[in-house]
Amino acid sequence: QDPTKTFRIFPNIGLIEGKSFMIICFEFQPKAPKNYSVVVQCQLNHSSTNVKKIQLVGSCYSPSISISNEKTLYYPPTYTGVSTREKIAVTNETLIPLDVTCQVPDKYKKEVLFEPSIFRLRGNETFDLLCTFTPLRTKPYQIRCPLQVSGTVDWQKDLIGFYNPGSGLSIKAKDWASMRQTSLSDVTLIGAGADGSILIEPLRIDFGTTKVGDELMKELTLINKSTSNVFVQLKMHPTGDCDSSDNIQKVIKEMFKFDFERGVLNSHSKKVIKITFKPKTRFNFCLKFSVEAKEKPVPQAATATALQTFAKTVCSATITAKGDFPLIKIMDIRNEKISTSSLWGSFKLSQLNNELLSPLSEVELNYNNTDQTNQSISDLQSNLHKFEWNFGKIAMKPNVQPRKITVTLKNVGGVTSEFMFKFPNDSEIELEPWADPGEPTEEQAFEAHVLQKSLFDVRPRQGSLKPGE
Q1: Residues with Cβ within 8 Å of residue 205, at least 6 apart in sequence
Q2: Which pairs count as long-range contacts for 449-458, CB under 8 Å and 24+ apart, including other chains?
Q3: Do the bridges between strand 78-79 and strand 182-194 make them parallel or antiparallel, or are there none, so unpaired?
Q4: CB 78 within 8 Å of CB 228
Q5: What is the pTM of this model?
Q6: Which long-range contacts (CB under 8 A, 24 or more apart) does 245-252 make?
Q7: Which of 340, 381, 365, 356 is nearest to 465 (CA)?
Q8: Contact yes or no for 176/153 (Cβ under 8 A)
Q9: Which of 16, 75, 213, 341 pairs as cysteine with 191 (C-beta 3.0–4.6 A)?
Q10: Is 31 in a helix, a strand, or coil?
């Protein structure tokens, strides 16, 4: 027997029948944290010459951890209401698992957050503890946060007992909690809550009306007049005057680009931000451009709930922009011998104006982006809406004056509009003499004859109209 009762054996005496065996239980119950080594003797058949020696070795540890950076977390001056995150390494210096509970004084619970607040360390394990500091007042901070360290408890093992089965059943579970050996360490947070102002200039940016597909760039300046570095993120939200859309944020993201979306804005510094507007459809934008001061992202972010609370809008501006297609409308049609009403009907100008003012169809988009389709020009043209302009009949007599129709065009859109009248042979490629174009169809031959004789002509063939012109 061990006189210190650190090691106990059950049973310590017994009889083993021939060709049989007996299970002997050894119990280790240390009284102090240190290494133990004891040699016990097993005497067989009461003979002093027949002794077997067994060395019992064990180690006992008290809960102990080490904290990096001299147990101190340093935070730069931080804008009030904005979070800053830092990591500190916590190491288990023992070979036993430990439970660590991070505690924050009640007066600072809204300003300090440990993630996670409770965690377990295996033997010799190092864990990076994330601490978020959100100053709510303009003042220097020095906060001491206790870390309670305790050994883990196997309730089933401790309550049943190994040496004498059932011996621990008389001890209640709540008593075991008070018997757990604990130690205290602490982490000191040093930082400051800073105030000041972040300005944005100008407060209003107007892109005007921009043609769909064109790009327009404007600049604004962020000015940090405070003594603290601030991590900012830029966002755009629609206001009540903006056109509605099922997915407005996707539309905004596709048409507006920043050369700086988020990053650190140093103290007493300026940052010029370029905003590019490239409309892809007809849309009227009225947006709120907001600058949010928030926590700097870390590789392993906290929970989404925590992220939503640590942000603060510090300044904002208004952005207005409009994307528009070139819009041309036929306002009038004249001929010296035919009335305007007759020409309006024979040229189907009401239907044509409706088509000119309606949004582009998928067929028209394909025609405008021929490089993105495998269809030929003739196939693309055949899919377009066709309108017949009937000039009427003219007698085939010598010296007959041609019938001239004058059409008045007006730009009714908000951007400069260009127009061009194209004849079927404008896109033809001149073939080499040896090339065989093949036999044309009857329709193609008739069209080629009309074009060759120049039976129709348009002047001017192209032009440009400013808004309202």
Answers
A1: 218, 220, 275, 289, 317, 318, 319, 320
A2: 451/423, 451/424, 451/425, 456/423, 458/421
A3: parallel
A4: yes
A5: 0.51
A6: 245/283, 251/281, 251/283, 252/285, 252/287
A7: 356
A8: yes
A9: 75
A10: coil
pLDDT tens-digit profile, the chain (469 residues): 677 788 888 888 888 888 899 888 888 888 888 888 888 888 888 888 888 888 889 888 888 899 999 999 998 887 777 778 889 999 999 888 999 999 999 999 988 999 999 999 998 999 999 998 888 888 899 999 999 998 876 655 555 555 555 555 545 545 555 556 788 889 999 988 877 678 888 889 888 888 777 888 988 898 888 777 777 888 888 877 666 666 777 888 888 888 888 887 877 888 899 988 888 777 788 888 888 776 555 444 443 334 334 567 778 888 888 887 788 888 888 888 888 888 888 888 888 888 777 777 777 777 666 666 666 666 777 777 777 777 777 777 777 778 888 888 888 877 778 888 877 766 655 655 665 566 767 777 777 777 777 777 888 878 888 888 8
What is the distance in angstroms between the CA of the first residue and the CA of the last residue of the chain? Answer: 113
Quick one: tokens of 391? 């000039």
User: Which amino acid is it at 39?
Assistant: V
Going from the C-alpha of 333 to that of each of 36, 344, 392, 425, the distances in angstroms are: 111, 7, 15, 26
Residue with tokens 């067994």: 54
The alpha carbons of the chain give a radius of gyration, in whole angstroms, of 43
Q: Name the residue among 405, 240, 415 with its Cα closest to residue 334.
A: 405
The Cα–Cα gap between 378 and 441 comes to 14
Distance CA 359, CA 356 (A): 8
Q: How many Cβ atoms from other residues are within 10 Å of residue 63's Cβ?
A: 25
CA distance 276 to 268: 26
What is the sign, positive or negative, of the torsion defined by CA atoms of 298, 302, 304, 310?
negative
On whether the CB atoms of residues 121 and 148 are closer than 8 A, the answer is no
Secondary element (H or E) of residue 206: strand 204-211
Angstrom CA distances, 196 to 34, 149, 224, 349, stand at: 56, 40, 8, 63
- Rounded Cα–Cα distance for residues 243 and 281 (Å): 12
**Structural tokens at position 141:** 């901070």
Cα dist from 175 to 27, 170, 183, 201, 408, whole Å: 22, 10, 18, 66, 99
- 365 Cβ contact partners less than 8 Å away, ≥ 6 residues apart: none
The torsion defined by the Cα of 275, 276, 280 and 285, in degrees rounded to 10, comes to 30
